């Protein structure tokens, strides 16, 4: 992977807008900012991290609260970003998460702040996070079976994650969205149970196709549980109909859910089909990694170092310009559809989802 440190010859200067929204060469505008606040995690989900041997970034390489707030303020005031999501690694690992949320909300009161988390330890912190101004949380929940949780997440306890879901709801961070990655032969048979549970517990469930972003490079197209597989599996218990509400760049395609043969709509379920039904044409994301690099796409092979600028006294104008240049060269798409995979054009990035900030 290459990191642009500041050599003006490597980044483009022609065509890059100098003001207005954060756009790329293909006409997309980034309105959502996703910031990874740590690369560390207390779980080792098989589809994301290796079981052992993770090398974490040194603490001094992570963005500080003040640096995150500065970047977010620039994104909101210069680019018109409308939403900030904190992710990782596991955001709850950072003891200053509440301070960060409070500072973001104080600086940009009109901008919602949300978090994607595995929910471990959330039970004790949900109310404090809500009081600090956190608007919503999305929680990873791949299984309802404690043994399968142990196989998939390899650390932590299912009961702790479930307690986190309940605490987030009690604290008013609703709707709580649940993210489930299905793995063939491990938890794919649980799709209907997960949906029953989510409907009964008033959560918005989304199933996610596994992407080739695991640290072990163990992903295969043949083994991946596809959106079509998920719809088929849910059809045993449910009738699904497309939700006509516009998707507006959201990765999840939503379906209205009815119990088989019944009229009443019970809720919705989302399917995030990044591989088989990509949504890159409508992508609205700009990402900052935990060490302060702009990553224009999950599947980029290079990053642009803003931390270096922040820590060398650069002005907001300098940071803004470098960020615009980084996003201008965002790839058109991830290339992991059949065309890319079969032609050998697709190359897996050398950073795992946890390091990028999923
Ligand atoms: N291909 C692709 N997948 C993404 C992107 N962002 C999120 N995802 C996938 O969607 C899953 C859920 O993401 P979340 O962090 O919960 O965020 P979200 O779904 O955008 O959040 P909401 O705004 O609450 O709908 C992630 O685990 C990824 O697998 C993206 O930019 N590209
Ligand atoms: C990288 S995690 C970071 C936040 C938090 N630790 C969590 O698990 O929610 C963000 C999301 O990425 C998803 N994810 C991780 N690896 C993935 C992969 N290889 N393919 C698809 N989604 C993945 C997780 O399920 C989770 O919903
Ligand atoms: S998916 Fe989230 S919880 Fe699981 S290992 Fe990756 S960062 Fe940790
Ligand atoms: S893969 Fe890249 S371009 Fe496609 S939706 Fe995700 S971040 Fe956007």
From TrEMBL:
Record: residues binding [4Fe-4S] cluster 1: 41, 45, 48
* Signal sequence range: none
Q: State the needed cofactors, names only.
A: [4Fe-4S] cluster
Is Transmembrane helix among this UniProt entry's keywords? Answer: no
Q: In which pathway does it act?
A: Cofactor biosynthesis; molybdopterin biosynthesis
| Record-level Gene Ontology MF annotations | 4 iron, 4 sulfur cluster binding; cyclic pyranopterin monophosphate synthase activity; GTP 3',8'-cyclase activity; GTP binding; metal ion binding; S-adenosyl-L-methionine binding
Give the reaction(s) catalysed: GTP + AH2 + S-adenosyl-L-methionine = (8S)-3',8-cyclo-7,8-dihydroguanosine 5'-triphosphate + 5'-deoxyadenosine + L-methionine + A + H(+)
Q: For binding GTP, which residues are annotated in this chain's numbering?
A: 34, 85, 116, 177, 285-287
Tell me the domain of life. Bacteria
Where along the chain is S-adenosyl-L-methionine bound? 47, 89, 140, 211
The residues listed in the UniProt record as binding [4Fe-4S] cluster 2, with positions renumbered to this chain, are 280, 283, 297
Q: Which UniProt keywords apply?
A: 4Fe-4S, GTP-binding, Iron, Iron-sulfur, Lyase, Metal-binding, Molybdenum cofactor biosynthesis, Nucleotide-binding, S-adenosyl-L-methionine
- According to its UniProt record, what is one Pfam family this protein matches? Mob_synth_C
Query: What Gene Ontology terms for biological process does this UniProt record contain?
Result: Mo-molybdopterin cofactor biosynthetic process
How are cofactors bound according to the entry's free-text note? Answer: Binds 2 [4Fe-4S] clusters. Binds 1 [4Fe-4S] cluster coordinated with 3 cysteines and an exchangeable S-adenosyl-L-methionine and 1 [4Fe-4S] cluster coordinated with 3 cysteines and the GTP-derived substrate.
Alphabetical list of CDD domains matching this protein: Radical_SAM, Twitch_MoaA
Q: Kindly give the SMART domains that the UniProt entry links to this protein.
A: Elp3
All copies of the Radical SAM core domain together span 25-251
Q: What is its EC number?
A: 4.1.99.22
The record's similarity note reads:
Belongs to the radical SAM superfamily. MoaA family.
Q: What does this protein do?
A: Catalyzes the cyclization of GTP to (8S)-3',8-cyclo-7,8-dihydroguanosine 5'-triphosphate.
Q: How does it assemble?
A: Monomer and homodimer.
* Name of protein: GTP 3',8-cyclase
Q: Which organism is it from?
A: Kocuria tytonis
Its taxonomic placement starts with: Bacteria, Bacillati, Actinomycetota, Actinomycetes, Micrococcales
Name of the coding gene: moaA
């Amino acid at each position: 992977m290459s990191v642009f440190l500041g050599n003006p010859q490597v980044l483009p200067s022609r065509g890059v807008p100098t003001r207005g929204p954060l756009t790329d060469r293909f006409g997309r505008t980034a309105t959502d900012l996703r910031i990874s606040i740590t690369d560390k995690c207390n779980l080792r989900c098989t589809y994301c991290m290796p079981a052992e041997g993770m090398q974490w970034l040194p603490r001094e390489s992570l963005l500080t609260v003040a640096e995150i707030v500065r970047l977010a303020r620039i994104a909101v005031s210069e680019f018109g970003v409308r939403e900030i999501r904190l992710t990782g690694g596991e955001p709850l690992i950072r003891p200053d998460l509440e301070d960060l949320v409070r500072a973001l909300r104080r600086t940009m009161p009109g901008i919602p702040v949300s978090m994607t988390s595995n929910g471990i330890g959330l039970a004790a912190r949900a109310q404090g996070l809500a009081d600090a101004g956190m608007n919503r949380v999305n929680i990873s929940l791949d299984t309802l079976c404690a043994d399968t949780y142990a196989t998939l997440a390899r650390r932590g306890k299912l009961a702790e994650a479930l307690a986190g879901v309940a605490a987030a709801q009690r604290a008013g961070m609703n709707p709580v969205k649940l993210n489930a990655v299905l793995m063939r032969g491990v938890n794919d048979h649980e799709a209907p149970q997960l949906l029953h549970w989510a409907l009964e517990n008033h959560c918005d469930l989304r199933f996610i196709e596994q992407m080739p972003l695991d640290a072990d490079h163990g992903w295969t197209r043949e083994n991946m549980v596809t959106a079509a597989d998920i719809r088929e599996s849910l059809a045993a218990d449910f009738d699904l109909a497309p939700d006509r509400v516009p998707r507006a760049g959201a990765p999840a395609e939503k379906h209205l859910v009815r119990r088989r043969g019944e009229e009443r709509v019970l809720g919705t379920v989302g399917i995030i089909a990044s591989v088989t039904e990509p949504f890159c044409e409508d992508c609205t994301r700009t990402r900052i990694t935990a060490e302060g690099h702009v990553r224009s796409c999950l599947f980029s092979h290079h990053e642009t170092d803003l931390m270096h600028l922040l820590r060398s006294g650069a002005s907001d104008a300098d940071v803004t310009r470098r960020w615009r240049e980084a996003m201008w060269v965002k790839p058109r798409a991830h290339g992991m559809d059949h065309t890319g995979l079969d032609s050998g054009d697709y190359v897996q990035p050398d950073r795992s989802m946890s390091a990028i900030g999923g």
